[in-house]
Amino acid sequence: MKVHPTRLPECLIVEPQVFGDARGFFCEQWNAQRYAEHGIAMTAVQANLSRSARGVLRGLHYQLPNPQGKLVSVLEGEAFDVAVDIRRGSPRFGQWVGVVLSAANQRQFWVPPGFAHGFAVTSESCLFHYFCSTPYDGPADKAIHWDDPQLAIDWPIARPSLSAKDERAPRLSEVEPQLLPDYTA
Asked: What is the CATH number of the domain that holds 65?
């Protein structure tokens, strides 16, 4: 596998080795030892799937307490995936990185704990997969507004379909500091 850094050094793009022929393909989606060797040291405790239609935007979500790291990929379709550094005291606070994930490119994206995460579906539909480092914790679930001008994320969709939760999410500047994760160097 190949691991590529992004402009947010904790967020990584993973290109698994794909073995394919006329019959189909095989690729390893998770191997704790191999991923740890590349800086993704997590215990996957939960795996999730979501299916969304074109134009759906989910995010920007995070969990506090019990922040989640997420290794995400697209099994069918295509999505623009985003991670935002929301760690108090981080030298990259408020910065984001985006990557196109698709069934065709087989990429994975590592979104570490302490980052908000979201994606926008750019294909007819999208089957999105998450390996999570901590279980989902409903009362700890939080969101930042997807279109926060301070973040200036270059989403590929102008008028996304949003959940009620995502429509009413606050801007990053409106979140009380104690409701954001801490940065540790």
From this structure: 2.60.120.10
